[in-house]
Amino acid sequence: MKQSNHFLSAVIFMFLLCGKNMVAQKKPVQLGPTGSDCIGALEINDTIVGPVFSPKGFGNNLELVGYELGDPYFIQREHNSVWYKFTIPYDCVFTFDLIPIRKDDDFDFLLFLYDGPNFCRDITAGRKIPIRTNISRKNIEVQGQTGLSETSVDEYVPSGPGSSYSRALKAKRGQTYYLLVDNPFRENNGHSIILHYKRLKPLPKGEFIPAPMEQTEYKIPLRKMVITVTDEDTQERIQSSIFVDNLPDTLPSKYPAISQLTLEVLSYRTYDINIIKKGYLLHSEQFIPKNDSLYTIDIKLKKMKQGDRINLGNIKFESDQAVILDKCKPALDKLAEFMLENDNITIEIQGHVNGEGKKNKKKFITLSEDRAKAIYQKLSEAGVELSRMRFKGFGNSKMIYPNPINSRQSEANRRVEAEIVSL
Fold it and tell me: Is residue 12 part of a domain?
């Protein structure tokens, strides 16, 4: 961190007597890749930064990825990004200007309030919501600038046409903020940042002034999600274990022995829903609430029979490897719980790869088998008896889309399934 701070100091200039045009005239300095990660955020100790070029790429850690277009809180993923951090010097109204050197360059920002040592980890896990964002389309009329302004009213501005500036922030002395600046295009002419701290002065001694109305604290709107579980054949509600991942830490992820669950959730978050009931197939799906106030999810459970397959689409691997991604642990846990709940079944774990237009080469079969074996081993570690499992790799011989035309179809080919071979 000391090296990062030292490097940033070399590119921070004091222009307290100069306007924004003077900032734009300086030759930008290329920032290194360290600043592209939250954990390596570059510390701002002055009121003006730059001009600088953003680092190329997203650094060593891709903190933000997989969000929906139109999400007011997050960009879809990091591109060419830089993380800054700064501490508020005194109680103030905080604003800032993010100034592209070239007005055609498009910059987005997300502003987070730091809250402890797990901060960066929580951002990567999707457990932290920014306090201000602006992801709107660049506005040439304001020279492509963005930031926080006292005249703006929106805390969050999603992608597309919208206000170039978001609402100013009342900040307290000693608070630390992290600012993510993202540029979706590899080539840009750099940017500068000007921070403004408008001091909140104390009341004159002995003088009574009516207190101004408190600024209303912005509350992120919640949506209601109702999950109902029924038997596919009888259409009657049945009690089961309902699992919902990616909820706030204050809520449990498991709700046993119920047939209906009502939760308040955030818009544009991806929620993994799993249903486990003895004698029924494991049900898994993802759901993304957007702007409606109420979402009803009706899940019909299917009774198991020999030959049924469970698509383990939520269990993914490193590219061209049999290494299960860390973020897939919850999905593995649900599969293990399903197997332990239904202790009478035997399964075959089947691996498949995406190898369109090619023969089923030995490396395809080996990779698919290694991936199936990786799940087999994880289930064994979770307490599932080896006698109840076997694994097999099919390579690219059973692709769902033999000639995929997009990444979604290619991803569907690259799968692992569990077939019920005996009950």
Answer: yes
